[in-house]
Specification:
Oligomer: single chain
Distance between the termini: 15 Å
Number of strands: 5
Shape: globular
Order of helices and strands: EEHEEE
Strand content: 25-35%
Length: about 110
């Protein structure tokens, strides 16, 4: 599917890049319909996490924050610190590129 923040007007910034089914960037200003709704726009393969070092990674997520809306969190970045398990103490900086319409408040659905 096309990321929610790839639609024009979701935030005060330009929409994020979307790609066609062959992972080629679309230069449409965000106007192509999502592939999940009969269109030809999808998330690009560049939206995948990567490690900077043993304690820091960068990535992307769908986000839903209490008291906010897509216009406040689309394209925003957040530093998440893991507090348990094998990743305890490690940091993951994510950019919100999708909305979490099916998520509870204050929820990050990590794109992994």
């Amino acid at each position: 599917c096309k990321s929610s923040c790839a639609w024009p007007g979701k935030a005060s910034l330009h929409p994020i890049q979307s790609c066609d089914v062959h992972n080629q960037p679309l230069n449409d200003g965000g106007n192509t319909q999502s592939g999940c709704n009969g269109g030809s726009a999808y998330s690009c393969s560049t939206e995948q996490p990567y490690a900077v070092n043993d304690t820091l990674s960068f990535g992307y997520a769908a986000v839903k924050l209490a008291g906010g809306s897509e216009s406040t969190w689309c394209c925003a970045c957040y530093e998440l610190t893991f507090t348990s398990g094998s990743v305890n103490g490690k940091k993951f900086v994510i950019q919100a590129t999708n909305t979490g319409g099916d998520l509870g408040d204050n929820h990050f659905d990590l794109a992994i």
